[in-house]
Write a structure and sequence with these properties.
The structure holds two protein chains of two kinds. Chain A is an alpha/beta fold. Chain A contains 28 helices and 37 strands. Chain A starts with a helix and ends with a helix. Chain B has one domain. The longest helix of chain B has 34 residues, at 63-96.
Chain lengths: 1026, 137
């Protein structure tokens, strides 16, 4: 009996220890395979930099901070955020000088549930965040106005913060101030609900309403924003009892609340807290609404700037970066938006040919052609005035005043300015300039924005042309009353050219940038509409039939200048150019699938493309069958010891600061890449993007990367402390755990539409510089920003990550931010190249458009940063261009980005979401660089890249593409702050981290106990038998 | 019927339940990971070995070896638990960034609960024993 008990005990103990051993071995295996992100999480590294020199290591700080403490960095960022919101707030309306408010004599009642729960930024990937545990503050409207000395109606604040009202508050995705539900997974119908979060009128007691009497009402209308979400016109209001016609129209509760504010206030000021244009025509027309101020989503400090604007401490100088339409769905870019399924989609039962793994079920046809935003409204307006193209006859008469509330680029000030366009000079192949005199004609100091537009010659039934397009802009310094200044707006005349797919150049290639012969009209104005009216009045010689939609609008033919192009030019801007996106036009694959919007007949282009049966060629893209590994070539050499290290490629000045990089065409680069082993190359490519893995053979340390457009994302790195190790103790920007600001969130800046609304490139560049400072103090070398996609329409809920509906404003702002970041050694990684204009079914969404539209809109936003190499890297999007994954679209990446734009930076995909369509094979083959991934391929049909090493070794072409892609990475790494701390005597040495040592110890201990238990069990069995 | 035989029957029942739980967890896991082989192979091996053990027990073959089989299946289940746990952590990243539905995580949690229950049962059986046979302990 004793023996029997002993057997049971030893057998049971064996089971327990064997289980622990299995856990330890399994855990260690998996942990080592994922050491990259585990090291990131713990702030550890498997490679230690060791100085093999004489110990007299020279200064290795190639990019240094301008600040001496983290406190200074945080303070500078907070101040900049406030300034951006001051200059980015847009005054739409200000009757009877209702603004500014008198802080000393006026009590303010904040109206609207969303005055208590405003939206500061977006959700998911690049949200706004603060480290509240350590005292970092997020300023909502209440807090900001109180901080700036306003007297607030506390009774109303108490009401909104009480349980009864809070029951109506937006709480989407677990965060107050958000009513959107990010689209988890794929959608087979348009989203159903959006919560406005307003309270019903019957909740306001008479006593509460009386408390607002004789106070100034500040009413807050708010819509939030999120990655992975969209608004949709068919949504219903998720707030109990409330309803709306569309989610971007005012809801019934909002209208009731505004009515109460009117009844109980001396004046009504409306704040529009939204990056998605809200329908506010009724507020504009309402005499009882005294002022409207757009704040956008201003980040955690921005409402402080808004408060300064409300009080008049700062004069608003922002201009809106989107058209505010009367009806947010009236643009042709809303005709095709949302969920559209191929007939053979994976859910189509017996007709299904696509599989879920293909991620190819969905498409969208951008039938509007080049006419998005103001390019539609203004162009159609001109054609109405000139009575051509059936412009005024879609069912009922089309009238600009019924279509647009506030035009693109519009904004008021507390003062008035007079602008005079003096002269325009254009040098084709060179630079263009416009000279403008600006005078402050009011009685308050303020800044003015000069906006320069151009109208290019249009021939009916010829190339599609927008009636006006932004060419350039400048912002003045503060002008005192009566003060004048001369401003020169510089622009690149290449952006005057239109893309023609049919034009054949002298080299025989199809596709060219065309400057047609004829009159080009340059004009300035307070927005696109005023600029166009100036042009029309000059062309027509009168103002008859011209429409104005804002009270301050002037029409002045003297502010338009004609410039003549004597002959057509198809060569100057067409070097290396050829059609590269033919497959993105669905009509090229299947004739007459879509009628695009066209000036030749405005009645066309209003039918959704409800059904597409993919052709065989399209199916190749949709089933990810474009490329395959084959046996070809003579092989490629890896792991050759050429005695080179990455640091050898950096050039420094006399002070030891970074001054340049060995040119990319120097053969030394091939020697450096040749040193890398194939295993290292595979690991680097497969694990690229989230961070970049060390490459010991060239002494490349781990390079850290992170989201996003409002600063490094807090959900991925918890403040400045995350990346530092003891090895970095001597670095001047090392942050210790004792630092008061060590855990502060960095993603605090206003969203991109607010930055764009400043029309101030200096501020944008400064923002880039402070992103760079964050990089130096957080040991981050890459930021996945800025977002350079366009606001195709008002309904994409991720518009907060992108600047504008206009490609040139996007282009200029992107260049400014990237220049700033690069000056601090931060690698700038703009995203999402390209054509990512809706979040609905973004993963694998086939996006169709004309090549002209793709190049003049979606790509032009990226062109400045890529062509000028202000981008170190570029992140591709989730969608497809045509039917090919955009990160593996050879025409886009190899022809346009590399060949036409001469890009020297790296390319990386977005986070792998659908490992078979975003697969490493296609990405590398097509010039997409590398996939941004963690472990996604382990579970996909293509499998991990390392598992295909044998096939890769036989494919010379593939390996050459690998080497080329890696070369671009290394070229930019050398020019980054990732090189700080590295000298020419530094070597990377492998060592186990503490967590690896702990795991190995666990294996040893559990193995000993398991073996011991088994032996004791066997002994007990044997003794029993004896 | 001796107390030993009663214990054996109980042990056998527990072992059968543990095997069925493992089998169900394989099926649950397949709904989210149809192509991820290591976990599937481990779990399938655990189910097969359990079935073989039950068969051997029925035939009264080598009871000391049969009684040791739950130790092996417990270890296999432990391996599978760890693998799946790491996959779940990875998946959380995708859910947080809204690339995958949160239901994916619920499936993982269901799987983990099933497999851990199964693991516990295997360990209990290891302690209690299953096989009677000639050398019933």
């Amino acid at each position: 009996m004793k023996r029997s008990k002993s057997k049971k005990i030893w057998r049971g103990t064996s089971a327990v220890t064997a289980m622990l051993l299995a856990v330890a071995v399994g855990g260690t295996t998996i942990a080592n395979a994922n050491s990259g992100w585990i090291n990131t999480f713990f702030g550890t590294s498997n490679y230690k930099s060791v100085d093999r020199g004489d110990g007299q290591q020279s200064d290795t700080t190639y990019f240094d901070s301008e600040f001496s403490s983290l406190e200074e960095v945080v303070t500078a960022k907070n101040e900049l955020a406030e300034q951006i919101s001051e200059e980015g707030s847009v005054l739409f309306k200000n009757n009877n000088s209702a603004l500014p408010l008198a802080k000393d004599s006026e009590t303010v009642t904040l109206w609207g549930m969303n005055s208590h729960t405003p939206t500061l930024g977006g959700m998911v990937g690049s949200p706004s965040a603060v480290d509240t545990e350590d005292g970092q503050k997020a300023y909502g409207i209440e807090e900001a106005l109180a901080e700036k000395g306003f007297t607030l109606n506390q009774q109303m604040i108490d009401f909104y913060s009480g349980d009864d009202a809070m029951a109506y508050a937006r709480q989407g995705f677990g965060a107050t101030g958000h009513g959107l539900s990010p689209a988890f997974g794929m959608m087979y119908e348009n989203a159903a609900s959006y919560q406005v979060g307003e309270v019903p009128a019957n909740l306001y007691s008479q006593d509460l309403l009386t408390s607002a009497d004789d106070t100034a009402a500040v009413v807050v209308i708010s819509r939030d924003a999120s990655e992975a979400a969209d608004y949709h016109p068919d949504m219903t209001n998720g707030t109990q009892g409330d309803s709306f016609e569309r989610p971007l129209a005012l809801s019934d509760y909002e209208k009731e609340m505004i009515e109460l504010a009117r009844e109980h206030s001396t004046k009504v000021i409306v704040l529009v807290n939204s990056d998605n244009p809200v329908e506010i025509e009724s507020l504009k027309q309402d005499e009882g609404i005294d002022a409207i101020l757009w704040t956008g989503l201003p980040g955690v400090n921005g409402f402080l700037g808004v408060a300064d604007v409300l009080s008049g401490d700062e004069n608003p100088s922002g201009h809106i970066s989107d058209t505010y339409a009367v009806n947010s769905t009236s643009t042709p870019a809303m005709v095709n938006f949302g969920v559209y399924l191929y007939t053979n989609n994976s859910q189509a039962g017996s007709e299904a040919e696509l599989t879920e793994a293909d991620k190819g079920d969905w498409y969208v046809v951008e039938s509007e052609g080049i006419y998005i935003g103001y390019k539609y409204y203004e162009t159609r307006y001109e054609d109405c005035v000139l009575d051509r193209g059936n412009a005024d006859s879609t069912g009922e008469a089309w009238n600009y005043a019924d279509e647009v509330s506030y035009p693109f680029g519009y904004g008021l000030s507390y003062t008035t300015f007079e602008q005079k366009l003096n002269e325009v000079n254009v040098e084709i192949g060179g630079t263009g300039t416009a000279d403008v005199t600006v005078t402050n004609t009011g009685d308050v100091a303020g800044k003015a924005t000069v906006q320069l537009y151009v109208q290019t010659p249009y021939t009916e039934n010829g190339l599609e042309k927008s009636a006006v397009q932004l060419m350039g802009f400048e912002k003045t310094d503060i002008l005192e009353p009566g003060e004048s200044t001369d401003i020169t707006v510089e622009f690149d005349p290449q952006y005057m050219a239109s893309y023609s797919e049919e034009t054949v150049k002298a080299d025989g290639m199809e596709g060219a940038w065309v400057l047609e012969a004829g009159d080009y009209y340059f004009s300035i104005g307070n927005g696109s509409h005023e600029a166009l009216n100036n042009i029309l009045s000059l062309k027509l010689g009168s103002q008859d039939g011209l429409v104005t939609v804002t009270e301050d609008e002037t029409i002045n033919p003297d502010n338009a200048i004609a410039w003549q192009m004597p002959a057509e030019d198809i060569e100057t801007y067409s070097e290396n150019v050829q059609n590269a996106l033919w497959d993105c036009d669905i009509n090229k694959s299947i004739e007459d699938t879509v009628e695009y919007t066209t000036r030749s007949d405005w009645t066309k282009g209003w039918e959704p493309v409800a059904s597409i049966i993919p052709t065989e060629e399209m199916m190749k893209g949709l089933t990810n069958s474009r490329y395959a590994l084959t046996e070809n070539g003579d092989g490629v050499q890896w792991g050759v010891d050429n005695g080179l290290a990455l640091i050898d490629f950096m050039q420094t000045d006399g002070d030891g600061n970074f001054s340049g990089v060995v040119p990319l065409d120097d053969p030394m680069w091939d020697g450096l890449v040749g040193q890398i082993t194939l295993d290292e190359a595979i690991q680097f490519i497969e694990m690229a993007g989230t961070d970049f893995e060390s490459i010991p053979s060239i002494n490349l340390p781990k390079v850290y990367a992170n989201d996003g457009p409002v600063g490094f994302a807090y959900d991925q790195v918890a403040g400045y402390l995350t990346r530092w190790t003891d090895e970095d103790l001597d670095r001047p920007t090392y942050v210790s755990a004792d630092d008061e600001y060590a855990a502060y969130a960095m993603n605090t800046m206003p969203t991109e539409p607010v930055v764009a609304a400043t029309w101030n490139r200096e501020l944008a560049q400064r923002e880039g510089e402070l992103f760079g400072e964050d990089g130096l103090w957080a040991k981050e070398s890459t930021i996945m920003a800025p977002g350079l996609n366009l606001h195709r329409n008002a309904y994409c809920a991720r518009n907060m990550e992108y600047y504008s509906e206009d490609s040139m404003l996007t282009n200029y702002m992107g260049v400014a931010v990237c220049k700033g970041g690069q000056s601090k050694g931060l690698m700038m990684e703009p995203k999402h190249l390209a054509f990512n204009h809706q979040e609905t079914n973004r993963s694998g969404l086939s996006t169709f458009f004309t090549e002209q539209a793709g190049r003049e809109n979606g790509l032009r936003g990226f062109q400045g940063v890529i062509e000028g190499n202000y981008a170190d890297g570029v992140m591709t999007a989730f969608n497809r261009a045509g039917t090919d994954f955009v990160g593996a679209h050879k025409g886009l990446l190899t022809q346009i980005v590399r060949k036409e734009w001469g890009y020297d930076g790296w390319i990386v995909s977005d986070l792998i979401n659908g490992a078979d369509y975003m697969n490493w094979r296609d990405i590398v083959f097509a010039g997409g660089g590398a996939p941004l991934t963690e472990t996604a391929y382990a579970e996909s049909e293509i499998g991990e890249m390392s598992a295909s090493k044998a096939e890769i070794e036989k494919d010379t072409e593939f390996q050459q593409q690998m080497k080329l892609g890696i070369k671009y990475y290394l070229y930019n790494f050398v020019a980054s702050n990732a090189m700080n701390g590295i000298s020419n005597t530094t070597e990377l040495v492998y060592e186990n981290t503490w967590w690896q040592l702990a795991l190995y110890t666990a294996i040893g201990v559990t193995a000993v106990f398991t073996v011991g238990s088994v032996i004791m069990y066997i002994r007990a069995c044997r003794k029993r038998e004896e | 019927m001796s107390e030993h035989n009663g214990n054996c029957r109980k042990g056998r029942m527990i072992w059968i339940v543990a095997g069925i739980l493992t089998l169900i967890s394989v099926i649950v896991f397949q709904t989210v990971r149809s192509v991820f082989l290591p976990v599937t192979i481990l779990m399938a091996a655990s189910v097969i070995i359990t079935a073989a053990g039950l068969f051997a027990e029925k035939k009264h073959l080598a009871p000391d070896i049969v009684n040791f089989i739950p130790v092996i299946t417990a270890a296999l289940n432990a391996f599978a638990t760890v693998y799946a746990f790491f996959l779940m952590v990875d998946k959380i990243i995708y859910v947080v960034t809204a690339l995958e539905p949160i239901s994916t995580i619920y499936t993982f949690i269901a799987y983990e609960i099933l497999i851990i229950l199964s693991l516990i049962l295997h360990i209990i059986v290891s302690f209690s024993g299953i096989s009677g046979g000639k050398t019933n302990d």
